Amino acid sequence: MHVFNPCSGIHVLTLFRLNRLLHFYRLPLAFDFLESGVEYDTVLVRELKYLFYSVIFINWLTCLLFNFACPPKPEMFGGHSEGEEESGAGEGCNPNSWLGKISFMDAGANVYTQYVCSLYWASATALSVGYGDITAMNLTELCLSILLMTGGVVFFGYIIASIAASLANADSQRAAYRRKITAISTYIEDQNFSESMKDRIIGHFEYLWLRTKGIDPKHLFEALPMSLLGDVSLSLYNDVINKVPEFQGTDVGFCKLLAMSMKPVYIRKGEYIVKKYDIGNEMFFIHRGVVSVVAEDGNRIFDTMTTGHFFGEVGLLFGTPRNASIRAESNCDLFVLHKDDLEQVMSQYPDIRAQVYKTAEDRREAARQRSIMTMQGEAVPTKALPAALLRSKQGMLPGHIRRTLCYWLSL
CA nearest 314: which of 378, 360, 271, 253? Predict the structure, then answer.
């Protein structure tokens, strides 16, 4: 009589979880996200990715070989004949399979021993380093071995080639980077810089190396024709340019020249991008990361800006001093537009120049009027209020002061 063990038979339900394998496509997306971030060393993330893929690949091959040698039996899902004990792990294996021909493998071998043997043969076959101690015993296993050897050569060949190419491309840039760091360190020691200043300088170049691997993005496309260079630059910076009210609705040619003038800049966490009272000759666009508008003491945070925000447009146009300090709260990738470059572009478009300055002056005057109304206690339309209220690490500022600061900081 056949007896069903409900406690063991519940493992049948695990078969319905196989659909979770369809989620495997998320794994490459997760690694792509980590490699594109600025918080991690992309080389380390890439090495971990290859290691993780290799472990998964070998484990799948191991399970495949194991199931060919020890196919699932009904007893494994909770059933056995009355008066008989459930079979051990080794009893379910085919004695004529590759696993059954191993000298130390007997019927009493546990599943862990079987898995290690399967792992050994899967690794030796996939890496094409088999020693002949384990061989296929039938036509099915021969075909399976051919597939494993072919798939292993392709998979691990790709992994090895990717790592070798990455190291080869980085060697020349790494040597140049080391020479530059050595020269900077020597100069710093000769000039008796403080240790904190030395750490900030060296730390910046180390972070720059992690982000660019010695490739200067400013000169990467210099050899392109001017028309193609304009199209490439516009595709990179068009979205951030159109978010600035002063540049909205301008001519495509103007936007192309403006995009060609923009340059990437990389800021480490904790460094100041601009400081209060500095003359505003640059405008910044946040591509990745988080920045904060902070007080002079560096403790109070008035506002926080993330990807897609920009700051410094009024200072760029009117050359006014900065009225607040901006600090990077995480590693940041920014785009910067210099005043000289903007003036050179606008000199070729006098009509757009007048439009840009008029829009900037209108926004500046509107912000000034709102500030006066707030200081006088008058009602201010809700739509004029900023989306993010000012906040402080040591407590909230009074409401009217908080709104006034936010209006002026928006400049």
Answer: 360
Cα separation of 363 and 264, whole Å?
A: 27
* Residue 183: partners with Cβ closer than 8 Å, 6 or more residues away: none
* Contact partners, residue 363, CB within 8 Å, separation at least 6: 245, 246, 314, 411
Please report which residue ranges of 191-275 form alpha helices under DSSP H: 195-212, 226-242, 252-261
Q: Could you read off the pLDDT of 22-53 as tens digits, one per residue?
A: 777 787 788 877 766 555 666 777 888 888 88
Residue 2 has phi, psi (to 5 degrees) of: -90, 130
Q: What Å distances lie between residue 1 and 10, 77, 79, 82, 349, CA to CA?
A: 20, 16, 10, 5, 94
**Longest CA–CA separation in the chain, Å:** 98
Q: What's the CA gap between 76 and 286, in Å, rounded? A: 58
pLDDT in tens, 141-184: 888 888 888 988 899 888 888 888 777 766 667 777 888 888 99
Percentages (nearest 5) of helix, strand, coil residues in the chain: 60, 10, 30
Q: Convert the pLDDT of each residue in 61-116 to its tens digit.
A: 888 888 877 776 655 444 444 444 444 444 567 777 777 677 666 555 677 887 88
Q: In what order do the strands lie in the sheet with 325-328?
A: 272-274, 325-328, 291-294, 301-305
* CB-CB contact of 333 with 288 (8 Å): yes
Does pTM surpass 0.85? no
Give the closest residue to 45 by CA, choosing from 177, 210, 164, 168: 210
Q: Which amino acid is at 252?
A: V
Q: Are the beta carbons of 283 and 316 closer than 8 angstroms?
A: yes
| Residue in the structure block whose two tokens are 């040591």 | 394
CA quadruple 129, 135, 139, 140: dihedral sign: negative
Q: Give every strand in the sheet of 282-288, ordered side by side.
A: 263-267, 332-338, 282-288, 310-311
pLDDT in tens, 204-248: 888 888 788 777 777 778 778 888 888 888 888 888 888 877 787
d(C-alpha 290, C-alpha 331), whole Å:
8
